[in-house]
Amino acid sequence: MPKPLIVEIPHELGLAEARRRIAEGLDQVQGMLGKTGIAVDRMTWTDDRLDFAMAAMGQKVDGQVDVRPETVRVEVRLPLLLALFAERIQKKLGQEGNLLLTKK
Known about the structure:
InterPro entries: PHA_gran_rgn. The protein is α+β, with helices and mostly antiparallel strands. Helices cover 39% and strands 37% of the residues.
């Protein structure tokens, strides 16, 4: 099993605002994922941690998002086939996360 992909995204929003933005962003993402054939199996908040699992083309991905006062830590466990794309996935997560958590 490959090691998990981890992305740390700094922010200056505070815990509550960062969590709110992530929750709102996930609502939009879930709709888009369904259209691409990616099935969301689980998205569950426990305090400031989101546990998720999804599947597409027989591949299952799971992980968690930990919202902290100054950073958001995303950990994703990829199956071996998708681990080949880990660098691109990590870069995209960082870019999209920064856009979501940039002060407006």
